Amino acid sequence: MDLVLMLSFLGAAVVLTIMPGPDNLFTLAQSIAGGKLAGIWTTLGLCTGLLVHIAAAVIGLSALIYQSAFAFSLVKYAGAAYLLYLAYQSFKAKDTALNLESGTASDYRSLYKKGLIMNLLNPKVSLFFLALLPQFVTNTGSNVQLQMLILGLVFLIQAFVIFSLISLFAGKIGRLIRKYPSLSGRMNLIQGGLFTLIGLRLAFGER
């Protein structure tokens, strides 16, 4: 693959990753509430979900989802419902201070699963790869599916790096907030509000 083409793809991937979206907002919410490790474990779950979406785009399953309005809507609304359920849990625990920086392995497994499920239940991710990857594939190069897979992995790596940086930054903000009792008690409300925002955006957003 051409180096200039690869660098162009990487630049586009970075810009698209840092734009506000469900994945980075979800990571931001978890990091503020639970610290940088909470965000990083959430990131691992999200990136595992990206692997599935990349494979679906390469194989062509994404196209089938896009062509089926019912399948697309089913996955989209399931994802929105899951996020609103997480928001409900956060609002329900509004008087409990969150701090997972010294969490157990089960805490981190839970965060990993949340990131994975949230990403898998967002059909727009598969459609994103289906629309983006072919734009940087050359017909004169190697196998088209192999090129798409390589580009997908490049996207995955840069997404992991950026989400990890978001986790570190948001974790510091969360630590600062926890120093003030009046704000610390509202951490779950902040998280619940972000989950609600993401869920509604996913439910009512266009394809």
TrEMBL record:
It is a multi-pass membrane protein. GO terms for molecular function: amino acid transmembrane transporter activity. GO terms for cellular component: plasma membrane. InterPro entries: LeuE-type. The chain crosses the membrane at residues 6-26, 38-59, 65-88, 116-137, 149-171, 183-204. The keyword Membrane applies. It is found in: Cell membrane. Keywords: Cell membrane, Membrane, Transmembrane, Transmembrane helix. Its main location: membrane. PANTHER family: ARGININE EXPORTER PROTEIN ARGO, ARGININE EXPORTER PROTEIN ARGO-RELATED. This is Threonine transporter RhtB. It comes from Bhargavaea cecembensis.
